[in-house]
Amino acid sequence: MILFSLDNHRIILEKQVIRITLGCFVDQNELKQAVAQAAVDYVLEKIEPDSIVGIGTGSTANCFIDLIAPHKHKFLATVASSEGSAERLKEHGIAVYELNTVSDVTIYIDGADEANPRLELVKGGGAALTREKIVTAVANEFVCIADESKWVEHLGKFPLPVEVIPMARSHVGRELVKLGGDPVWRDNVVTDNGNLIIDVHNFHPIGSACALEEKINQITGVVTNGLFALKPADVMFLATQNGIVKHYPAP
Q1: Cβ distance 10 to 4 under 8 Å?
Q2: Tell me: the pLDDT tens digits for 57-74?
Q3: Is 233 helix (H, G, I), strand (E, B) or coil?
Q4: Phi/psi of residue 84, each to 5°?
Q5: Cα distance between residue 164 and residue 183, in whole Å
Q6: Residue 170: CB partners within 8 Å, gap ≥ 6?
Q7: Hey, what domains does the chain have and what are their CATH numbers?
Q8: How high is the pLDDT of residue 18?
């Protein structure tokens, strides 16, 4: 492994950024496949035969599911953050448990719509943010996987998803405007929990992601929002054109 250590300033980053694979990837699909494979290799080092593996939602998570499938005999079962992921796991013959039936999730793998150097994330493009946040809360370790297009210095260019109780949609929208956002109802989308999604534009740049996450969650009628800042990722594998980079949260 090659540590980033270009000058005295970068020496601080040795523990946060590690290049683990060199190569050249052509398109976004190849990037997703490569980062999913890196995550599979990492997970296989962490799990035991009785381990429960948490599985996220989205195209990169789907790549992970397909690549972990040949190793399904090396862990006990999975918990999924969406019905779609659960169905894909079952198609591979991988056991899927309800989260209420397990006391421990060894590791959780999921993608992101945006990630910053502190590994604070914006998630929810696939409308699974609430279940993703629940599994994240239970997991011993949260590993985020994404391609370089998701890496940003400041969160907020990607519209922030907010899951809301249907009858509270208009009320929540008005409160989000007071916070400076431009809420847009994601039409014809119902979450696995039977709720609605509001996508909030114009929050960029988000200054304190933790503070905004708390403020939005305090609005009556909000189930949760797509900021994963109070509990960010523990480690992130980022696929770039030059290889896979492993990130730890910056101070």
Answers
A1: yes
A2: 999 999 999 999 999 999
A3: coil
A4: -65, -45
A5: 12
A6: none
A7: 2-153+230-247 (3.40.50.1360), 160-226 (3.30.70.260)
A8: 61
**What percent of the residues of the chain are helix, what percent strand, and what percent coil, each to the nearest 5?**
35, 25, 40
Q: Residue 70: what residue type?
A: P
What b/e sequence results for 237-249 when a residue is b if at least 16 CB atoms lie within 10 Å of its CB, and e otherwise? bbbbeebbbbbbb
Residues in the chain predicted with pLDDT less than 70, given as ranges, are 1-26
CA neighbor of 160 nearest in space, from 144, 130, 184, 178: 184
How far, in Å, CA of 11 to CA of 3, rounded? Answer: 9
How is residue 140 written in tokens? 């011993």
pLDDT score at 17: 66
> In the beta sheet, which residues pair with residue 114?
122
| pLDDT value of residue 184 | 99
The structure tokens listed for 138 are 């239970």
- Residues with Cβ within 8 Å of 167's Cβ and at least 6 positions away in sequence, in order, are 221
pTM summary value: 0.90
Task: List the structure tokens of 121.
Answer: 């994330």
| Residue 251 confidence (pLDDT) | 84
Alpha-carbon 54 to chain mean position: 11
CA-closest candidate to residue 205, choices 112, 119, 110, 122: 122
* Residues taking part in catalysis: 132
Residue 202: DSSP 8-state: S
Q: What is the pLDDT of residues 23-35, one digit of tens each?
A: 555 688 899 999 9
Dihedral of the alpha carbons of 160, 164, 166, 167, in degrees to the nearest 10: -120
CA 7 to chain CA centroid, nearest Å:
31
